[in-house]
Design goal:
Length: about 160
C-alpha cells in the first residue's frame, strides 16, 4: 500500500473538523512511541527549549551511568544506545542550537568518562562521527551563534 504525499495529507486534514483531527492525533500517538514523544515535545516542551535541554542532559547522564565498561564490546554497546537516544531527542527539536548543544554535551561526557577511544575502532568512529556532525552544524550557524559555541569546541579540540 502506497502512502499519500504530505501535501495530500495536509489538504485532507484541513477538510476535517477539530474533533476528527484530535481523534486522528490520539490514534497516531497510541500507535508508536516516537509519535507520542514528538507530540509530547510539541505540546509541552517546545516553548521552553532550555528546560527540554536540561531534561535530555539528565537522561544522557543516566544512560552514561548505565554503560558497562568491563570490556570494549559492552562499552561500545552502551555508547551506541546513548547515541540512538541522543538522535531521537534531536529529531524532536528542529533547532540547530539544540542539536549542537546535545552533540557537544555527548562528546564532553565521553571525554569526562575517560572512555578509551583507542580500545575499539567502532567506539572511535562513533565519537568522531559526532565530531563531524558538530562541525557541519557549526558551519551552518550564524556568526554570532558560532562565536557563542567557539569556546566549547576549542575545549573539545574540534576547532583551533
Amino acid at each position: 500500500m502506497k502512502s499519500h504525499s504530505i501535501n495530500e495529507i495536509q489538504k485532507e486534514l484541513s477538510t476535517l473538523d477539530k474533533k476528527e483531527v484530535l481523534d486522528l492525533c490520539m490514534r497516531l500517538a497510541k500507535h508508536k512511541k516516537e509519535s507520542k514523544e514528538l507530540l509530547s515535545y510539541l505540546l509541552f516542551e517546545v516553548n521552553d527549549e532550555k528546560e527540554y535541554l536540561d531534561k535530555v542532559k539528565k537522561a544522557i547522564d543516566e544512560l552514561f551511568l548505565d554503560i558497562n565498561r568491563k570490556s570494549a564490546y559492552t562499552t561500545k554497546k552502551g555508547l551506541q544506545k546513548v547515541v540512538r537516544n541522543l538522535n531521537k531527542f534531536i529529531k524532536n527539536s528542529s533547532k540547530k542550537e539544540t542539536q549542537l548543544d546535545l552533540r557537544i554535551y555527548f562528546c564532553k561526557k565521553v571525554k569526562t568518562a575517560r572512555i578509551n577511544l583507542d580500545s575499539s575502532r567502532i567506539i572511535s568512529n562513533l565519537y568522531y562521527r559526532e565530531i563531524d556532525k558538530i562541525k557541519i552544524i557549526f558551519s551552518k550557524l550564524h556568526e554570532d551563534l558560532q562565536y557563542d559555541y567557539k569556546e566549547d569546541l576549542e575545549k573539545l579540540a574540534i576547532i583551533q
